[in-house]
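Minutes, project check-in
Item: structure for the 253-residue chain
Input as provided by the requester:
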Amino acid sequence: MVPDSQPGARIETSAIEAMENTVRFRPRGTMLTLPEQIADGICSAILSGEYQPGERIREIPLASAYKVSRGPIREALRLLEQEGLVTFEPRRGAQVTELSISEVEQLFDIRAALSSLAAINAASNIQPGDLHQLRSLVAQMKQHAEAGGDAIHYTALSSQCGQIIAGAAQNPRLLTMLKSLWRQTLRYAQLGLHSADRRRESAQLWADLVQAIERGDAGRAGEINADTIRRSKESVLRLLRAQQAGAGDGGGA
């Protein structure tokens, strides 16, 4: 469900659309409740940067934009609270959670371990159609990175690759656990891909990963997928620590 207009929109429409295509992590055709549809829309706005960390999310403008009462908006925000994207503060209501170094360390370590297992299983189980999609996506990622494309669209492409590999692992419980992590880590992953050099490095790692899966080299595929996520984690931590140091010194970015 897309609102008529995004309240306080500050990001180009194509960027928000890219995130809307990424945040769902559900099979096409899945029936969603109204609050779930609204939660997806708010999530994409958070991930695209329309809502900044710590920013208040006002219910009335959202209700007007989605043409619903405040009830479904509040339910949608509670769903996002469960995912760690939103917190509720006394007398302030909902606001976007702040970026956290400890959260990065915890979430990315878990995701690296689970993603490694997904790649190992995918190397043995992947189907030709999935491989074709992966090759196409990696080609787009490399082209996007070399052309100096932005992090939002690059992250959308890499997330699609991750979903295909997780599905190809043919382990429903593993897929469920990864889905619970993806939306929580997307805004961090996007931050970790802030520079053109990082996106080029990432695109090459994805290309190496797809080649390993295609060869059926499960061990190598697992190593590369874990390494890809570890490098993203390290990049995010460097940025967050630099920001905190700058804030502590009273300086700018």
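Outcome recorded: The longest strand covers residues 86-89.
No further action items on this chain.
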